[in-house]
Write a structure and sequence with these properties.
The complex is a heterodimer of chains A (511) and B (372).
Chain A: E1 10-19, E2 22-32, E3 37-42, H1 48-55, E4 63-68, E5 71-73, H2 78-83, E6 86-89, H3 101-106, H4 115-133, H5 148-161, E7 166-170, H6 178-193, E8 197-201, H7 205-211, E9 214-219, E10 222-228, H8 234-242, E11 260-270, E12 276-286, E13 290-294, H9 301-308, E14 316-321, E15 324-325, H10 331-336, E16 339-342, H11 346-350, H12 357-362, E17 372-373, E18 376-377, H13 379-392, H14 409-421, E19 427-431, H15 439-454, E20 458-462, H16 466-472, E21 475-480, E22 483-488, H17 494-501
Parallel strand pairs in A: 3-8, 3-9, 6-7, 7-8, 13-20, 13-21, 16-19, 19-20
Antiparallel strand pairs in A: 1-2, 1-4, 4-5, 9-10, 11-12, 11-14, 14-15, 17-18, 21-22
Chain B: H1 11-36, H2 41-53, H3 56-81, H4 89-106, H5 112-141, H6 145-167, H7 190-194, H8 209-226, H9 228-238, H10 240-245, H11 250-277, H12 288-298, H13 303-326, H14 333-348, H15 354-371
Helix pairs in contact in B: 1-14, 2-3, 2-13, 3-8, 3-11, 3-12, 3-13, 4-5, 4-6, 4-11, 4-12, 5-6, 5-11, 8-9, 8-11, 8-13, 9-11, 12-13, 12-14, 13-14
Chain lengths: 511, 372
């Protein structure tokens, strides 16, 4: 690179942003060269999302400026960002599911009152993009009928159709099978080769190593490192993210399985439309073991867990908890029978964000006589229990009187874990225990789960993180389209598990 | 993880400054309206305040109105905590009146303190019963409670016309109302009780129900923040999915919360029927059920906030009546306008000043942080 090289595609100059007491971005300087794939990693709350939101015009920076291809860009809204050639693929897709691919691509970019001319034009552009970038999607397919990977391609097509030269992808592989992820990376490679610039936000360090040219690390609102990917390692990245050395491998001994604590037999769960989302599932979990269910999100794992917890009524089959048939009981009765449940979505289900942390420790245990003093709740007893849990789990800030919404993701999750582990349940259902949780807290939560296993409790784990499943589980079941599609040891290769997750033997993997 | 979810304001700002600010703006605009019709707004405020709080009789009337509003305000507030918008306090209170009248007519002539507990029970029972049907259809059939409670207001009004014209009406009378209860059965007026102490409440119909209203506020506070049921009600209101996860049946909680809400609204009828009118007549609730919505909004569903807001509306009612009397140009409708403005600013535009205040406090905090 000499003085004559083109200016960077994006250059952040001294970007500074505060939200009240939170200093989300501190003097961020970062240059993204055109035609490269640049990774951006950092723990939750490190300021990545804020930086991207400023780039995409959702927030205005307090100070600093952004140069796009060397020119100062005044981006005040997503419309300005699109105009400047920036496209964003959000983690949650922004698609109208009932419309066709073509209509979705056109949405908001129609250029006349009559749709027909735009549609003809869009069809031609889509064909060209499909050929150029391996982005083939049937333009007339209804979005709801597409696979998740295909829907993501539609999102990318949308940005390209609007003339994006710079693509921001926020955690793009969270919802993809390993094969779909590989396909996505091929697309990104092609885009970069054609001169587009890709900014990839992820917390999967393996992906960073596999695909990016450079990687920037954010911590506490600052860029703490900006490496050439070739010259760094996963360990160094993790260390830069957390600011100390981290244990990436879970340290656990072999399991000593005991009696069957949870048995699921021929379980069928039907959703509102009458589709069998869990379709004849059966397995056992023994005392002292962790059974992991691997699968791409949306293949019935959530419904399975909810059915076992009594939140969803199964249409067929039996759920047996240490010899007691609990099929059809309500969540309170099942909890009473010795089951605890860390739900996969703490905001939707595990917490009441407007309640104090203390009140949240009560959730699900509000009937417990330990909290009752006559007709009233025993505030002192609740407070003592919460304070103990807070110091046990090192939950910060150490103030159980704060509203749950004010804690970081990791600490919120610790509140849920502390509550569910507190009663030494015989069976613990664990859904996405570390989703949106920073590395430090992941370590702590994993330790707790292993400790519970070692004390002879039975754990059933669902996670979208294959690495998490593999490092925690003693046995792995793969789930696809509501069925168990395979079982393996945790030391099976990623490709092998990936194949089972995709429906495995017989069914061809789509790519 | 949106940063806005982390933004907090001091409790004092949230619960005192913002409502006061909203109120001030409502009054400012009402003042402009007064100015527009050619009266002096400052003079109008002075007349209102003097009329509402300037002498014992005025205070008596103010508190009498406030009593009604406390009951309906609490009723709406309890439902709010369960995530329900109970528009039906009007109809529920109407049915409460039927209960009170049936008790008083049955025990007509018996001493009031003997009848009183039965009247309280009947008012709550009848009103809660009227709330039960919308509650059940909401909980078990998903019919929206706003729609059903509105319909039940009309049903209550119609039922009352039929009962008072065809069934319970005073024989030979032209107006649709029951006969007047015997003197002994009526709740005593505080003006009579307090007269020996040299307090002259004039003609104000203030009666012991004002004390019941205060007790009801304390009861609601304990219920919502100190009992398991209150915890369940709030959980259902804030996050029904988490409630299901916690083993709470949201439907059941919805029904129980609506029964409590209805019962609270019903107590208004004791104040009106047994304490003031001494007979059952059409439309004795006179819109207090709807004022309760404004009161609950302004009081931010907190019982003490509800009491304060109820007193404020009592002042508006009583002071407004005096104002209309003194200034013929300003009709009683003006009070409705002020009310509407208060509802608009305290309810619909509740968060209008929030962003500005947050920015203000952020800047202050940033300065403090920079200094530290």
């Amino acid at each position: 690179m000499t003085g004559t090289s083109p200016p960077p595609a994006i250059q952040f100059v001294g970007i500074d942003k505060r939200f009240g007491a939170v200093h989300a971005n501190r003097d961020v300087d970062l240059a993204i060269e055109a035609g490269t794939i640049h990774g951006l990693v950092g723990e939750n709350g490190a300021g990545k999302s804020t930086l991207m939101s400023i780039l995409y015009g959702f927030y205005a920076a307090d100070r600093g400026e952004i140069l796009i291809h060397g020119r100062r860009a005044d981006i005040r809204s997503p419309a300005d960002a699109i105009h400047a050639g920036i496209g964003m693929v959000h983690q949650q897709f922004m698609l109208v599911e009932t419309m066709s691919v073509l209509e979705n691509v056109l949405l908001g970019a129609e250029d006349a009152f009559r749709l027909a001319p735009s549609e003809t034009r869009a069809r031609a552009v889509l064909e060209r993009l499909a050929a150029d970038y391996e982005l083939a999607v049937d333009p007339d397919a209804i979005v709801a009928d597409l696979s998740v990977g295909e829907q993501q391609r539609v999102e990318i097509l949308k940005t390209l159709y609007r003339g994006a030269e710079i693509l921001i992808l926020d955690e793009p592989t969270a919802v993809l099978t390993p094969a779909e992820a590989t396909h996505l990376f091929r697309i990104l490679d092609r885009l970069a080769n054609e001169g587009k610039t890709v900014l990839l936000i992820t917390h999967k360090l393996k992906e960073i190593m596999a695909i990016t040219d450079r990687v920037a690390v954010m911590r506490a609102g600052e860029i703490v490192a900006d490496f050439a990917t070739r010259e760094t390692t996963i360990e160094r990245l993790a260390e830069a993210m957390v600011g100390r050395r981290v244990l990436l491998e879970v340290d656990k001994g072999p399991s000593v399985p005991g009696a069957v604590e949870l048995a699921v037999e021929d379980l069928v769960v039907t959703d509102r439309r009458g589709v069998r989302v869990v379709d004849g599932v059966g397995f056992e979990v023994r005392a002292g073991e962790i059974v992991g269910i691997a699968g791409v999100a949306g293949n019935g794992q959530s419904e399975l867990i909810e059915a076992i917890a009594g939140i969803r009524a199964p249409t067929r089959g039996r759920i047996v908890l240490h010899g007691i048939d609990v099929t059809g009981l309500d969540p309170a009765e099942i909890r009473e029978a010795g089951l605890a449940h860390i739900p996969e979505d703490r905001h939707r289900m595990g917490l009441v964000l407007d309640f104090t942390a203390e009140e949240n420790m009560l959730l699900g245990h509000q009937d417990d006589p330990a909290w009752a003093r006559g007709l009233l709740l025993d505030g002192a007893a609740i407070h003592t229990a919460a304070a103990t849990a807070f110091s046990d789990f090192d939950i910060r800030p150490n103030d159980p009187g704060l509203r749950a919404a004010l804690f970081s993701g990791g600490n919120q999750q610790k509140i849920v874990v502390a509550r569910e582990v507190a009663r030494s349940p015989r069976v613990l259902l664990v859904g996405q225990p570390t989703r949106g949780v920073d590395i430090g807290a992941i370590e702590a939560i994993h330790e707790r789960l292993i400790a519970l296993r070692d004390r002879g409790h039975a754990l059933l784990l669902v996670s979208a993180e294959l690495d998490e499943i593999r490092s925690l589980s003693d046995r792995i079941l793969a789930m696809c389209q509501g069925r168990i599609t395979g079982e393996c040891r945790p030391d099976a290769s990623e490709a092998e598990i990936g194949l089972m997750m995709a429906g495995a033997a017989g069914r061809e993997v789509r790519s | 993880m949106s940063p806005s979810s982390r933004r907090e304001l001091p409790a004092l700002v949230d619960y005192a400054l913002i409502p006061l600010l909203n109120l001030a703006v409502a009054f400012l605009i009402a003042g402009l309206v007064v100015l527009a019709i050619g009266e002096n707004p400052l003079e109008a405020v002075a007349i209102m305040m003097r009329g509402a709080l300037g002498y014992p009789e005025g205070i008596g009337f103010t508190l009498y109105y406030a009593t009604d509003f406390v009951f309906t305000g609490l009723a709406v507030a309890v439902a709010f905590h369960a995530g329900l918008f109970n528009i039906g306090a009007e109809g529920q209170a109407t049915l409460g009146g039927l209960g009170v009248a049936l008790v008083c007519l049955t025990f007509d002539g018996a001493p009031w303190w003997l009848v009183f507990p039965f009247a309280l029970a009947a008012s709550m029972l009848f009103a809660a019963g009227w709330a039960f049907v919308p509650a059940w259809t909401q909980a078990r059939r998903g019919s929206h409670i706003v729609i059903t409670t509105i319909m039940f207001n009309y049903l209550a009004a119609t039922l009352m016309v039929w009962l008072l014209v065809e069934v319970m009406g005073k024989p030979g009378a032209m107006s649709p109302e029951t006969r007047t209860f015997a003197e002994a059965t009526r709740l005593p007026f505080l003006r009579d009780t307090l007269a020996p102490f040299g307090i002259d409440l004039g003609q104000s119909p203030l009666n012991p129900m004002v004390i019941v209203a205060g007790l009801a506020a304390v009861f609601v506070w304990i219920l919502i923040w100190r009992t398991r049921l209150g915890f369940e009600i709030r959980t259902v209101g804030k996050n029904p999915t988490a409630a299901v996860y916690a083993g709470i049946d949201p439907g059941q909680v919805v029904i129980v919360a609506m029964l409590i809400s209805g019962a609270l609204a019903g107590l208004l009828a004791v104040n009106e029927v047994m304490g003031t009118q001494h007979r059952l007549l059409l439309e004795f609730v006179a819109g207090a059920g709807f004022v309760g919505i404004a009161v609950a909004l302004m009081g931010r569903s907190h019982p003490f906030g509800v009491v304060l807001a109820a007193v404020l509306f009592g002042i508006l009612y009583q002071g407004g009546a005096e104002l209309a009397f003194d200034k013929p140009k300003i009709s009683r409708d003006m009070i409705v306008v002020i009310q509407a403005l208060v509802i608009l600013f305290a309810g619909a535009l509740e968060h209008m000043f929030r962003p500005a205040l947050i920015a203000l406090f952020d800047r202050r905090r940033a300065l403090a942080g920079g200094a530290a």
